[in-house]
Design a protein that fits this description.
Length: 109
């Protein structure tokens, strides 16, 4: 049984911790950082192919604020904790009487 079956609605949220990679700079033994967030992939996969009710980043990148499309679909993690989680929890799903739990035989032998 999926959580969606219990709450009687889709559970489509994602929380990301943005990843970075080291990059070499011109001066020897100096390193900078490169972000691994690819806005084109995000727009294609997360917005067009598999839309989510909420996308939250712990460490939001500047282009997530300045890009009009990204800013409509990506929020900071505080929005999840202070607003959206309470909306999610207040949705009424199925009652326990409506949930049928199927018994399965023990598969270990």
């Amino acid at each position: 049984m999926k959580l969606e079956d219990l709450v009687n609605h889709a559970v489509d949220n994602a929380i990301f911790l943005n990843d970075v990679q080291r990059k070499k700079t011109k001066p020897q033994n100096r390193y900078g950082i490169n972000t691994t967030f690819l806005s084109g992939y995000f727009k294609a996969y997360t917005i067009k192919l598999n839309p989510l009710d909420g996308v939250y980043y712990c460490d939001i990148r500047p282009n997530m604020i300045t890009d009009r499309l990204l800013s409509q679909h990506i929020q900071t993690i505080d929005n999840f904790f202070y607003r959206d989680i309470w909306n999610f929890l207040s949705r009424h799903g199925q009652s326990l009487e409506e949930v049928e739990i199927e018994e399965r035989e023990n598969q270990r032998e």
